[in-house]
Design brief:
Number of helices: 8
CATH superfamily: SGNH hydrolase
InterPro entries: GDSL, RhgT-like, SGNH_hydro_sf
CATH class: Alpha Beta
Helix content: 25-40%
Protein name: SGNH hydrolase
Largest sheet: 5 strands, parallel
Strand order of the largest sheet: 2-1-3-6-7
Family: Belongs to the 'GDSL' lipolytic enzyme family.
Shape: globular
Keywords: Hydrolase, Signal
Organism: Dichomitus squalens (strain LYAD-421)
């Protein structure tokens, strides 16, 4: 069921407040849980055909549970409109963590057709009209900010993560240029004071050090979806970013910063 996005925040916050305890606080779990919201690069099963999402390996680095709610083919917009962010808001408890990473499916054009995933261009509150359905479409930053604020209102710790890179060795030489959604994720984080991990840059740096032949082997089908081995490397790069940022989630990482390959940026 689609949501009226502009009304998402007040509805969710009101719903959260109705379930708060008498002193205005929210119930906590004995052990916090990490929830993952993203696309196929994070999701169980990846893009299919022997690939895997990096979210499937994050739990091996943490001392708290991880629930992978990433879904293949989703964007910040479609994840919102399908009510998946609402489900997360209804599920989290104070002290939980939510890692949000989109971008691979958010591009495209709304000039003639609408695939239901493309966001309106811009990094603020710009709007577009879907040429297919006539509905209002918002920006990537708007969708992420509204979801992030609603999750924070429940007491969750929100981490915005930049999208993973496509194979940076695809041309035979190393090339990595962050997409606009990398900057958009950082903008969303700064807007609401959430944590930010430049996952794309951490992965790119690690892939550069591993070299052409190794990294090419991580992409068995296309330049976006990694093999299980590649997904494990991508997960470790996210952990490195968390440790280097020394945010709240870092306290739940089993590894020390020096034991995770790569350098802080």
């Amino acid at each position: 069921m689609k949501l009226l996005v502009v009304a998402l925040l007040p509805v969710l916050v009101a719903s959260a407040a109705a379930r708060s305890q008498p002193d205005g606080t929210f119930e906590k779990r004995a052990t916090p849980t990490v929830y993952l919201a993203g696309d196929s690069t994070m999701a169980k099963g990846g893009g299919g055909s022997g690939t895997e999402g990096w979210g499937q390996y994050l739990g091996y680095s943490l001392n708290i549970p991880v629930v992978n709610d990433a879904v293949a083919g989703r964007s910040a917009r479609s994840y919102t409109e399908e009510g998946r962010f609402q489900t997360l808001v209804d599920t989290v408890k104070s002290g939980d963590f939510v890692v949000i990473e989109f971008g691979h499916n958010d591009g495209g054009s709304l000039s003639t057709t609408d695939n239901g995933r493309t966001d309106c261009p811009g990094d603020g509150e710009q709007t577009c009209t879907s040429p297919t359905t006539g509905e209002t479409v918002y920006t990537f930053v708007f969708y992420e900010v509204e979801a992030g604020k609603a999750l924070q209102a429940k007491g969750a710790n929100v981490i915005f993560s930049s999208q993973t890179p496509n194979n940076p060795w695809e041309s035979g030489t190393f090339e990595y240029t962050p997409s606009r959604f990398v900057g958009y994720a950082q903008k969303a984080a700064s807007t609401i004071g959430a944590a930010y991990v430049d996952h794309g840059q951490y992965v790119a740096n690690r892939f550069q050090s591993l070299g052409l032949s190794t990294v090419d082997s991580f992409y068995p089908n296309d330049h976006t979806h990694t093999s299980p081995q590649g997904a494990n490397i991508v997960s470790a790069a996210f952990v490195k970013g968390v440790l280097c940022a020394n945010d709240v989630l870092a306290a739940h990482v089993k590894n020390t910063t020096s034991s995770v390959p790569g350098s802080c940026i």
